[in-house]
Specification:
about 280 residues; alpha+beta; seven-stranded antiparallel sheet
């Protein structure tokens, strides 16, 4: 009988589950299916578009963000929906409002025209969320603040089949919430990660028959505070390492327990993780 630690076995399986298995030659594939959307990918794409469109004569600050994977009622496919709490600082209120409108139009256009090309790499996640955590300082200027909503069209990516989380390291077994919890806690406890987290099973309705376990992950203690790149590295570690696990909801905001609004280590988060059911699962 193997004495391998379950978290280690799971981590090894999650890393390996995307590797192609040896198989006889098959006919040329048809159009690739849309990859499962990821709230984390949506956040990264939106923040990258914001950085590219930022007016040179204004200061732009993201105070908080929310993201969610939604079903498009027209196509029944998945979309990445992102909302930014945005403040734009400029010499006049009129210029601040005008710059906000420029950003709104640029982000909406980017979301509609730039298809997602696979999961965002951990480095892209880190760089995007460092941008979120920057405190540019526009106190000497006038400002306009509003919530900016973006819907992102997913791209097409070839996905491995049979990808699922299993504590025994095999595909095709039932998804187990205790296994996922052990895996998430192990990643959270790693050096430079977020430390202790609270994990709860959620009953939020699944988007389709291939959806398995859904859990809500947040800091174990209200007073825990993080850098945004620290949050990003933890979530990217979970979202990118396995095709079975993805972030389907995400909220990042300033912690009410950090009195210094310029402190880099003053952010908190809540994330929902969804695990794909194994092939043949319900």
């Amino acid at each position: 009988m193997s004495n391998a630690h379950p978290c280690l076995a799971l981590a090894l399986f999650l890393t390996a589950c995307g590797a192609p298995a040896s198989a006889p030659a098959s006919p040329a594939p048809g159009p690739r299916p849309a990859a499962p959307a990821s709230a984390l990918d949506g956040v990264v794409r939106t923040l990258e578009a914001l950085a590219a469109a930022r007016p040179a004569d204004c200061v732009v600050e993201v105070r908080a963000l929310e993201a969610e994977v939604r079903i498009d009622p027209a196509t029944r496919g998945e979309r990445e929906s992102v909302t930014l709490d945005l403040s734009v600082f400029a010499p006049t209120v009129e210029r601040a409002y005008g710059a906000y409108d420029e950003l709104r139009l640029a982000l909406v256009a980017a979301g509609a025209s730039a298809p997602r090309a696979g999961r965002a790499t951990p480095e892209r996640v880190r760089l995007a969320l460092v941008e979120l955590g920057a405190r540019p300082g526009g106190e000497a200027l006038l400002s306009y603040s509003d919530r900016l909503h973006v819907e992102l069209v997913p791209g097409s990516v070839a996905l491995p089949s049979g990808s699922a989380v299993s504590g025994k390291g095999g595909a095709g077994e039932a998804v187990d919430s205790a296994t996922l919890e052990s895996y998430v806690r192990a990643r959270a406890a790693e050096v430079r990660s977020v430390g202790q987290v609270d994990i709860q099973r959620t009953d939020r309705r699944a988007n389709g028959p291939r959806e398995g376990v859904r859990v809500l992950v947040e800091p174990a203690m209200d007073f825990q505070r993080f850098r945004t790149d620290q949050i990003g590295e933890f979530l990217a570690d979970l979202d990118h390492d396995s095709p079975a696990v993805r972030v389907t909801q995400l909220a990042i905001s300033r912690s009410s327990h950090e009195p210094d609004t310029r402190s880099p280590r003053g952010w908190t988060f809540t994330a929902e993780l969804t695990v794909r059911a194994p092939d043949g699962g319900s």
